[in-house]
């Protein structure tokens, strides 16, 4: 469905120029009513996860106890305030991501990482299942040094588990969070608005041995 060009990262010099204003989006979360863009309650932490089609990915996280709000958007590329169509063209460098705002006193970062790793196949490079393109690449974009270290450690741990079961090396991109650009209104909490909507997200069936679901006291 996609050409080879869309499965290779665009050069920064060839990326689409984008725009200097935000793409309009929802004000509140369709499921829990929280403010999508904040301000978020004191003590909340954030992380961005890319694991394929963001429709299904977002639902994995908004269902977790301790997650304050989720939003879908674009990050990791070059084009400011890109549209969905531009991201799908492969000419922005962005991947589809979920911004997860969570209470670390109620859900641990390891629990979020466990959900991330077990909800997709992180060995597939610029694709996820039948969805092919740079916008479907696996990624973790972190906001603190502690998150970054934990994400890298979990990658090594899960790569060992996957390798023992015949999977290739993990291709997940892990780095400090780039700017997050909110996706259009109709993408936010898409599967809550469209319960029968398509989602090609699927895990490997291999357990990642981290995460208890609740942060340590």
UniProtKB/TrEMBL annotation:
It is an enzyme of class 1 (oxidoreductase). The active site is at residue 53. Pfam families: PMSR. Its EC number is 1.8.4.11. GO terms for molecular function: L-methionine:thioredoxin-disulfide S-oxidoreductase activity; peptide-methionine (S)-S-oxide reductase activity. Keywords: Oxidoreductase. Residues 47-199 form the Peptide methionine sulphoxide reductase MsrA domain. Has an important function as a repair enzyme for proteins that have been inactivated by oxidation. Catalyzes the reversible oxidation-reduction of methionine sulfoxide in proteins to methionine. This is Peptide methionine sulfoxide reductase MsrA. The gene is msrA.
